[in-house]
Amino acid sequence: MKNAQRSDLWPLKSRLLGLTCHSMYLPMYYIFYVSLFSFLSISVHARLPSKIYGVNLGSWLVLESWMLPAEWIRMGGQQCSDCSQCIATEFAFARAYPDTVDGIFNMHWSSWFNEDDVHDLMEVGINTVRIPLGYWIVEALVDRKTEFYPRGGIHQLKRGLRQLKDSGIIAILDHHALPGVQTPNQMFTGRCTSDVEFYTDYNYRRALVWTAVMTALSHLDPDFGSVVAIEAVNEPIMNATQTPGYGDFQKNFVQVVRAVELTLGIDVPWSGTKIAPTDTTNFTVALEESLPNFTPEVQSALLEAVPILVEVITELALDSMTRFSPHSSREPLYTSFMDINWQYDNPPNPSDAQIGPQIYDNHLYYSFGGVADPNEQAYLESICNLQRVQADAALGNSPLVFGEWGLSTQFNATDEFLYKWADAQKLAYTKGAGWIFWNFKVEISTLAGDLARQWSYLEGVKLGFLTRDPSKLNDTNVCDGYIQ
Ligand SMILES: *[C@@H]1O[C@H](CO)[C@@H](O)[C@H](O)[C@H]1NC(C)=O
Ligand SMILES: *[C@@H]1O[C@H](CO)[C@@H](O)[C@H](O)[C@H]1NC(C)=O
Ligand SMILES: *[C@@H]1O[C@H](CO)[C@@H](O)[C@H](O)[C@H]1NC(C)=O
Ligand SMILES: *[C@@H]1O[C@H](CO)[C@@H](O)[C@H](O)[C@H]1NC(C)=O
């Protein structure tokens, strides 16, 4: 959505120049405009579009083999019904092929999401991407004695973010696969296992270090200029009695983001927390100096992040970027959480953690059951009467983004139904801050069958279920007759 972002500049531009557009001033005005644009482009990106029309970049930096079964087999992976029992995840793959895993994954990262895909997404008006990431993208966090993941993803992330930025598409960095695994037996955690260890001090701290590193890179590396938000945890266990400490983690997550930003001189509305001005222009030194201002949990995460940042900064050849000026024109990132209603049994409320801009994420799939009876009528009645935006807002979880959804169903859907199914969901989700489809694409192959028809955004547009302009509906009256 280049247009939406650019139009944000107009009022500002006329205010600063104190003149209205007149052909006589055009040449001078043009020069002002260009230099203003390059100066402002950083903060312009740190904003959400007025409505999010997005897709997930799933299976890029966290590979889920069900989405690309033929490529996975070619890479050397396996398929099985219980994903903990064969080479079905990144973890199992890296353990099986320690010598070749990095090269093989590098080829996957380059081919699954690249310039052509960015172009395709622009063509269909996508303004936002959510990028699922594993903790292992910060390589120093991996305990190589017991944990196995490919290396080198950070370079691909930097490359992809740069391409997105050049296209005016904003990005949400989504911590999708947490240290210790946040939910059992799911490919999306990078490791299928029933041994869930995320909800422990050790792994919470690793996730906070990850957060500090990603926040710093988002502000220091111009290639990360497309990043507007960081999401703390994708899909934690829904039963809140099984996620001890998650509420404290939410607060620490936000404080780590804001601590890094305060150190960078970014204006963060954190009452009572001011950090002393520093003489150093070396960011990691400044981060160490600012430690006493924060809680012990935040301090320990930042302290652990410092040497890792020095390493990542060297690896990405960003040394000059770490010289920062304490008066930054950047805007704080949005922090993002799964909404309170994702969990049950007395869940913590992520709105209690908020300092500065924050968004909430809800995921809705009908195909896994538990939402509506498996038939067209029940699906449309359910979606046309969805109350999630209101229910979340009543608990302070606003704005709400539907960060994952799709066209999949528990029954064999006709084309006629899928036109309606796409429209009705988009109608429901745009009552909130917007939507992010899962996924931007899936494999098209004999082995994948007709997976793409209901799981691929780009294929859905090609087939006509999803309108070419995402702000439009095929039939704006799709819910007539279903609203109760
Ligand atoms: C939630 O988890 C607790 C602890 O494991 C368990 O006792 C309880 O039955 C679970 N609740 C539901 C609804 O499954
Ligand atoms: C910044 O300080 C760190 C120590 O925190 C040091 O390792 C690094 O070399 C310094 N960077 C520059 C560019 O001076
Ligand atoms: C859907 O169609 C396939 C064949 O195309 C069939 O095998 C399957 O049983 C059908 N599923 C349902 C739920 O009707
Ligand atoms: C939606 O658009 C398709 C063409 O893309 C058309 O065949 C279909 O009839 C339309 N459905 C409705 C309900 O307007």
From TrEMBL:
One of its GO terms (molecular function) is beta-glucosidase activity. The chain crosses the membrane at residues 24-44. SUPFAM superfamilies: (Trans)glycosidases (SSF51445). Keywords: Glycosidase, Hydrolase, Membrane, Transmembrane, Transmembrane helix. GO terms for biological process: glucan catabolic process. Belongs to the glycosyl hydrolase 5 (cellulase A) family. This is Glycoside hydrolase family 5 protein. It comes from Guyanagaster necrorhizus. The lineage of its organism: Eukaryota, Fungi, Dikarya, Basidiomycota, Agaricomycotina.
